[in-house]
Amino acid sequence: MKFPDLTELALRNLRESLLRNSLTTVGISVGVASLVAMLSLGTGLQQMISRRLEKSGLFDTVFVSSRRDLRGGRQEERSGPTPGESRVLDEAARAEMEHLPNVKEVYPDIRFSTELQFEDKPHLTMISALPFSAKSNDSFDGMQGRFFSSDTAPEVILQKSFAEELLGETPPLGQPEPSIVELAKPLLGKDLTMRYAQRGESADQPPTPGPANKENEPAGASYSVVSREQRLKIVGVADLDPESMRGPMRARVFLPLRYAESLHVMQLVDLREISRAASKEPVYSSISVRVKDPSRIENVEDAIKKMGFSTFSILDASRSLQQVFRVLYTFLGIFGSLALIVASIGIVNTLVMAILERRREIGIMKAIGASDGDVKKLFFAEAGAMGIAGGIIGVVLGWAIGQVINFGTNVYLKSQSIPPEHFWAVPLWLVAFAIGFACFVSLVSGLYPAGRAAKLDPVQALRYE
Amino acid sequence: MTTAPTIPAALGTVAIRSENLCRHYRMGENIIRAVDGVSLEIRSGEFVALLGSSGSGKSSILNLIAGLDRPTSGSVVVQERDLAKLSREELAKYRLHVVGMVFQSFNLIPSMTVTENVELPLRFAEVDRGRRDSLAREAMERVGLKARMGHRPSELSGGEQQRAALARALINRPQLLLADEPTGNLDSHTGKEIMDMVRGFNRELGMTVVMVTHERALAERYAQRMIFLADGKLVADWDNDPSTVSGTEGGLA
């Protein structure tokens, strides 16, 4: 029989015992819905967590430092060549890293401690430069004001506790902290004056006393340090916890990266690398390399190590997380499939019943020339049609269940003043997989009834009343 | 597929030949010999009646000729096909293209319209929809059911249902028409109409007809040959000239 005829006959037969076949289809769709619900919960949770981790900039970032940085003593694992043979983290190295495959962005970590004046009062603090890409960082989710208008704008974003300090509003113990909205209101749009030490090109006599002031230049290297002042506009106040951050986020005041670079602020590394720092090119204490795809981080890390630098990333943590999710998926999948397996027994039952009912019909079809294959295909098509219908309804149902649970949970989260979260995801592959799996289960369930129908003896079947 | 009706004007080519045909059933301890060593020959274009009381094995022989059943021993050869040697698939093809069947209880599929019932064999033969429609229309016209095409079998009278069954049997232009008590569920008038139609197929389309009946009068009236069976054995084989039988209504008594 041709496929359109087969489909037509199968659908007609399904319509004939509409109630029974609908109930069976509902059974399948409930099974599919539970599978979709379970797996989309798993997917959603994984997506939510990886989204958070990605935004935190930990999982897609390789922190690069020169082995010459002898600070040490930090808990993270460092590996690489011995200090003697390592390279200097300069502009050339940065450019080289930018050209590595899978690298999205390379930016130096500029961090310095300096003095900020607000309404003529000095405040000493740690300032850090942020790449413009940090705009999408969820650390700035609850920020008041706005992000930098450009990468070169003379603007600052303050950390909440620093805003409190500027306003002189340190709350007494036990009192509720002032809200970020209250803090931001008097500060946004105001100016700060930043005083800093600029590393300039070699001059005969440095105008300010400083650590770089040298009497002789045996290596021929020298540079000047100039005290400078810059007016900066406060554009945002962010609720960040500097202690929990890493890399460029460990500061209380933030500047746009390109702007900060253009200031040529004197940094500690300039002292250490004095022989090289005399040139125009800056030397960096550390560089952050962001990769396009977190799964590629290992390749990038290896490539940078080969260049002769120390690297650090939280690769292993992300690996074990994936492992956890794989186990979670399997469990959710097994539980979700249980309902579908029960539904598949429903299909077998329905079709075996249909054979009993349509015994005579099968006999007639065989008498007028239907082959075993025709009969088999017909029952198969009926099982398949129930599978497809159940699959589609089930996906919609599963999606709806997910939406309802997501909504309900977010209402609860809101009442607990936790920001809402999208932890439910029905990706396209899951839709295709669920419908495909429902079809597969249905066809497997149809195997036995179809075989039985095909083997029916037409003489017996026609005698049957 | 649908072959042009071969009109075997030359009676004499053998359409069906059975040799020592046996069909035994096992029922518990007992073996039932439904067909027990029947040898016969039916020529192309013949109209043969198989007569006998119930349980004589006449329907079993018909099922064996139809390829619905397989012999326990012996052979049945139809149009040079040894049915016992055909695979299940080949038997289905044989039933589809060589044989048309009508039954006492009509055996239309109740969920389908009359037209759909009539064209069902064409679906199995994978005939295109357009050609299927025209063939079904043609067949329905031939049996005078054109006005009832969209109806369900349950909306039809017994005679109309049997006519639909005849149209279905006809649609693949088979060489062989097998009828199992075709008038058994009909009143005598409707029965006569159906039988006249069957005779028309035999004479005009040249179909070989094998009809099972227990009514001797019906056989005498339409068949050219009467084969009598009892307990699965052939007991008599008479030539009959239907034209000599008077056209009284008593023919279906």
- Count structural domains of chain B: 2
Q: What is the helix fraction of residues of chain A, given as a range?
A: 40-55%
Query: What's the story with the biggest beta sheet of chain A?
Result: 6 strands, mixed, barrel
Give the overall pLDDT of chain B as a whole number.
87
Tell me the number of strands of chain B: 10
Under the CATH scheme, which architecture of the largest domain in chain B would be assigned? 3-Layer(aba) Sandwich
Terminal CA distance of chain A:
27 Å
Strand content of chain B: 25-35%
Distance between the termini of chain B: 39 Å
| Count of helix runs of chain A | 14
- CA-atom Rg of chain B in angstroms: 18 Å
User: How would you describe the shape of chain B?
Assistant: globular
Helix content percent band of chain B? 25-40%
Structural class of chain B: alpha/beta
Please report the number of helical segments of chain B.
Answer: 7
Neighbour order of strands in the largest sheet of chain A: 3-4-9-6-8-7
